[in-house]
Design brief:
- Helix content is about 45%, strand content about 15%.
- With about 400 residues, the protein is an alpha/beta fold.
Length: about 400
């Protein structure tokens, strides 16, 4: 008995995209009697992406390597659109899967739409309702929503946002976020860090606060204010090591290394591989960040987050109390950090592991939905199995 397999093109750009799509790819590979995979990366994060591909044993069929010098958002989008259109014309997939809100997410969706290829959007429905924050991601994900055919939301809040925009309830599946799938697949009770300097910091047996910042809207003056706050906090709390893996963006590195390189308890590091980073968060006392996905990962690990943003699309953890929106004003960051790090009662009220963003089975729900979408019912799968 033969079943005509459906070709699925999974397209991603950045390290976070790859982390979140890795569990979906692995789940699709379990169903290789029904699906063939065409994995495509545009490699918007060349250096940061490769380690994730290695960790999850992902081998793209196409690596478009779109990044170049002095690209504007418009020239980048045009480059991605042209290259992906050519690949889709050759491969003719039955569906395209995209994730999140990058330039690649929107350009891939538009290219697929132009060729009348169905689109599945993973992590759909996140909204700040401010098109400039985060920029340009808020607009990319909104545009992707309105060309996509299947929408995999992470939470009921995201589902409601999609429904409010007129998306059919039948096309939405609240799957949970696949970043939790990746986290639970990676985290280990006993772990040896691969990064030498990180082993040294862990060996000091001091409290650790992990710091990350990289968002476009925080470059320039906001980054200067953030670094000023970190200097003050490190002096107020010499008993804590602040571990700061510094993003490769030159605009980030110039400010961070220029302002924080000589402080004894701020440890500046190169970006960490994914397993080291996740286990660093697990060992941390708290997190200070402007990241999107890290809000979800830290919440799942019970680590309070001070969020260096003015708005967030992940409102659940804000409401629950594990994430606090502190913005980028120096005095506000210092005040919130000192209260969290210096007051045991405040810390204990926020340091609770919560599963607002998934239970580790999002990728199973996504692939289960794709099986139904293409008519591979449970009965048909069972009949096929009996003929093997």
């Amino acid at each position: 008995m033969e079943i005509a397999r459906k070709k699925i093109a999974v397209i991603f750009a950045t390290r976070p995209d790859a982390i979140k799509l890795a569990p979906v790819i692995q789940e699709l590979q379990k169903h290789d009697r029904f699906f063939s995979l065409c994995i495509i990366t545009t490699a918007q994060h060349r250096e940061l992406l490769d380690d994730v591909l290695s960790v999850f044993s992902i081998a793209p069929k196409y690596d478009l390597n779109v990044m170049g010098l002095r690209q504007t958002p418009s020239t980048l989008a045009v480059n991605i659109l042209e290259k992906l259109d050519y690949v889709l014309a050759m491969e003719q997939p039955d569906m395209v899967i995209v994730q999140g809100d990058t330039a690649t997410t929107f350009a891939a969706s538009l290219a697929a739409f132009h060729r009348k290829i169905p689109i599945a959007h993973v992590e759909a429905g996140l909204r700040t309702n401010d098109k400039m924050q985060p920029f340009p991601e808020e607009t990319y994900r909104r545009l992707t929503t309105h060309v996509a055919d299947l929408h995999f939301s992470s939470t009921p809040t995201a589902t409601k946002a999609l429904l409010k925009e007129g998306i059919s309830k039948r096309s939405i599946v609240c799957s949970g976020n696949t970043v939790i799938d990746a986290l639970l697949k990676t985290i280990q009770p006993i772990y040896q860090f691969r990064t030498g300097p990180l082993n040294e910091v862990i060996g000091q047996n001091k409290k650790i606060v992990t710091v990350t910042t990289h968002r476009k809207e925080n470059l320039g003056e906001p980054m200067l204010r953030i670094c000023s706050a970190l200097k003050e906090i490190s002096v107020l709390h010499p008993e804590i090591n602040f571990v700061f893996p510094v993003h490769l963006n030159p605009a980030v590195r110039e400010t961070v290394f220029g302002m924080l390189h000589d402080l004894p308890n701020i440890i500046l590091m190169e970006p960490l591989n994914y397993p080291d980073f996740i286990h660093l968060i697990a060992k941390s006392y708290a997190v200070i960040t402007d990241s999107g996905g890290l809000q979800e990962e830290a919440s799942a690990l019970g680590k309070p987050v001070l969020l260096l943003r003015n708005v967030t699309e992940r409102l659940e953890a804000i409401k629950y109390g594990t994430v606090k929106l502190v913005g980028t004003e120096t005095k506000n960051i210092v005040s919130a950090a000192h209260r969290l790090l210096g007051t045991g009662k405040v810390y204990r009220s926020k340091a609770t592991a919560i599963h607002l963003y998934g239970d580790g089975k999002a990728s199973e729900r996504i692939v289960g939905t794709l099986l139904k979408y293409f008519g591979f019912s449970k009965q048909r799968i069972k009949e096929f199995a009996t003929h093997l």
